[in-house]
Amino acid sequence: MISELCFFSSLLAPHSSLLALDWSIFGQPAFDGSGNYFTFLLVGLGWTVLLSFTAFALALVVGFLVGVLRTVPSATLRAIAFGYTELFRNVPLLVQLFCWYFVFPEVVPVVGPWVKEAVSPLGQQIAASCLCLGLFTSSRVAEQVRAGLEPLLSRQSLAGLALGLPLRDVYGLVLLPITYRTLVPTLTSEFVNTVKNSAVASTIGMVELARQSQQLGEFTAHWYESFIAVTLLYALLNGAIILFSRWLERRWRIAGTIGK
Amino acid sequence: MKQIIAGTILLAGITLVQPIRADEALTGTLKKIKDSGSISLGIRESSVPFSYYDDNNKVVGYSQDLALIVVDEIKRRLGMSNLEVKLVPVTSQNRIPLVQNGTVDLESGSTTNNLERQQQVSFSTDFFIIGTRLLVRKDSGIKDFTDLRGKNVVTTAGTTSERLLREMNQQNGMGMNVISAKDHGESFLILQSGRAVAFMMDDALLAGERAKAKQPNDWTIVGTPQSKEAYAMMFRKGDSAFKAIVDQAITSAETSGTTTKLYQKWFMSPIPPRGLNLNLPINDDMRALFKNPNDRAFQ
Known about the structure:
The structure holds two protein chains of two kinds. By secondary structure, chain A is an all-alpha fold. Chain A has a single domain, classed as MetI-like (MetI-like fold), CATH 1.10.3720.10. Chain A is built from ten helices and no strands. Chain B has eleven helices and 16 strands. In chain B, the strands form five sheets. In chain B, strands 8, 9, 10, 11, 12 and 13 form a six-stranded mixed beta sheet that branches. In chain B, strand 9, helix 6 and strand 10 form a beta-alpha-beta unit. The two termini of chain B are about 20 Å apart. At the A-B interface, helix 1, helix 4, helix 6 and helix 9 of A face helix 4, helix 6 and strand 10 of B.
């Protein structure tokens, strides 16, 4: 995130002698009466985890589906999957979020007004953020799934078809069990990116980690402490995800392919 | 207290009105300005009508006019007629760090002078006083904060209004849904789209947002002010020589009637970019401030 980088570079800049970091602010009671400012940040971390994990689960399901469709024999299905991928990966994430949250309820008949009427403000924010992040990431997952499947198409899929397997089983029993294992390293990157991208939800008022750090800065005027703390929390969360995926990689490795 | 302020002003008048002599050692921000030949002014991109870009991409506004008066005073005191003025756009999130690390020498926008911030930065004599109120649709039937029970209310994240709304909700069990938007423009968008029935914010900023609406007359500012806040210019802490010059410039603008004229220009007359009139009559707090300038924080 650019703003964090700016803050760190300014730590090293001249004229910073006036700067004295005061870490005791995290023990002070939070402005909303929910506890102190440390638990205040943890609440934000909780929302970040909920948002990014839900969005990534959605991205995996949709991404694998679209990725498979990009390799099937039917030209129509391939074209639809191609259009989907290009739409969601070429439009900036912020613009997509704006569309889901502001434009969608205004232009879609029946569903739009219902969302504004019946769904709570928080529910609207969660739904828009998860859909936006999930579908954006799914277009990237789809491309990786396609890249994972394509090398297998000529030999493995022909071998499967020659054995008399229907196309469904060629994918289900032959191609995908190899693909999802070889994709663990790149999908880990996508997962980590989803966590970082979830900060866009702060622009529509979600009280996730990035938003909480801004609140902390506003109400205590201690911007440096706030951004350092939030950077560490993001790093810890992503570090945990990477450790998990390393473990998964070892467990799922296929002899002769990866993780020799 | 009055006497101390009057005394300080008098003392400042005697000792500092003359240009600073070349052999006098400059320190802090004044030295930085003298050495670099430039001053960097922190401005806002869309804080209407305090500091914002007009249709020619020029920074204008009440706070900007006042900042230029201060810059003129600095030019005169340092004897630098060709002082270069660099404009640095700041946001509410980065303005304090940018002042602290030296990127911005003087920030003049819509920054509240409060005690928490005074531990980090220094503030000038106050130049504006707002009350936090509500912007609602004229036919909504909402007259005051008590009418908000069980309703969706929007405010801009990280503001005093947000803190007050959440406190009100908790203490009086009002059951409001508080929506926090990223900036004033987005808050007003949420209000206009019908997702919230009221938008709580500083009255001057509400008037600024209202002026941007398609039909400004559909919207009205209501409710008892829940808090008062003083806007002031912000600069680095512990620089008394710089503060004296800035305060002197603002104080004399306020007592000489210049700020009253500026108020008429920005709040009671058509302003760029669309020639709309904010129509926000001056309040008693500000009249008192102009009569008796001070750098007090309300909270």
